[in-house]
Design goal:
Elements lengths: L1 H17 L5 E12 L6 E7 L2 E6 L6 E5 L6 E6 L6 E7 L2 E6 L4 E6 L5 E6 L7 E3 L4 E4 L4 E5 L5 E6 L1 E2 L2 E2 L3 E7 L2 E6 L4 E5 L6 E6 L16 E7 L2 E6 L4 E9 L1
Parallel strand pairs: 1-19
Antiparallel strand pairs: 1-22, 2-3, 3-4, 4-5, 6-7, 7-8, 8-9, 10-11, 11-12, 12-13, 14-15, 16-17, 17-18, 18-19, 20-21, 21-22
């Protein structure tokens, strides 16, 4: 009986710490808005050395570009052959990395000159891409995130879950303050993920971010998260605006 009571006491102490708590719910507060190329089918979005970079998709329209934040003007641009559907991108160890969706290849360029370096074979669908400064972190549309070295070799992976259930359709990624932020494709939701456990620790409700009056027939879903000096920026595919936002607990 004493042994049973001891085990029960240990379990009572362990369960709260071992179980994943419900994610914190957030809403958005718009701080500022900027013009964004409405023909840009946004796949990747990030800042590097103070400059805004964006990769875009669609066959025949895929590109990588440096963008002026204040005006939305494209300052530099790489165009890809019609057969390639561009996806997530990031700069890591002075190289630009860019995925393709179903082409089974990924590209690298010199980050400064944008000079082509190498094409890699890539075994999964390419979706989102970011870095924690030590690894490339990629999504493939499933609930799995892959941590890779600079040659796309997988070092480890995590399964992303919320309330114990897998979160699928993880798309564009951004590393912010030690967490992975991810768009959930086809939704107005951004999830904040613990990179060690895969648990979703926060959910950001982005519904209504782009007003209905600015939507056109080709306006697509929320996609694109960037971070600069504590500031968070969001946009979407073929959106005419990019928004600087703050998140506020509901």
């Amino acid at each position: 009986m004493k042994r049973f009571l001891l085990i029960a006491a240990v379990l009572a102490l362990c369960l709260p710490a071992c179980s994943s708590s419900a994610p914190v719910q957030y809403r958005l507060k718009v701080v500022a808005e900027y013009d964004h190329d409405p023909s840009a089918y946004t796949q990747g979005l990030f800042f590097h050395s103070g400059h805004l970079y964006e990769s875009t998709g669609q066959c025949g329209q895929s590109s990588f570009r440096m963008v002026d934040l204040s005006s939305g003007k494209v300052l530099r641009k790489l165009d890809f052959a019609h057969k390639y559907f561009g996806e997530g991108s990031v700069i890591f160890n002075d190289k630009l990395y860019m995925l393709t969706w179903t082409n089974k290849v990924a590209f690298t360029y010199d980050a400064e000159s944008l000079k082509y370096l190498k094409t890699y074979s890539y075994p999964r669908e390419g979706w989102g891409l970011t870095t924690d400064g030590k690894s490339l972190i990629a999504s493939d549309g499933s609930s799995t995130l892959y941590f890779m070295d600079g040659d796309f070799k997988v070092k480890r992976s995590i399964k992303v879950t919320m309330d114990g259930r897998p979160v699928r359709y993880l798309n564009e990624l951004e590393w912010i303050n030690g967490k992975i932020w991810a768009n959930v494709y086809t939704t107005d939701m951004v999830v904040i993920i613990n990179p060690s456990s895969g648990n979703v620790e926060g959910v950001v409700d982005c519904s209504g971010l782009l007003p209905s009056k600015l939507r056109k027939p080709d306006t697509d879903v929320l996609n694109g998260i960037a971070h600069l000096d504590g500031r968070v920026f969001l946009t979407g595919k073929n959106w005419p605006k990019l928004y600087e936002v703050e998140i506020v607990k509901k």
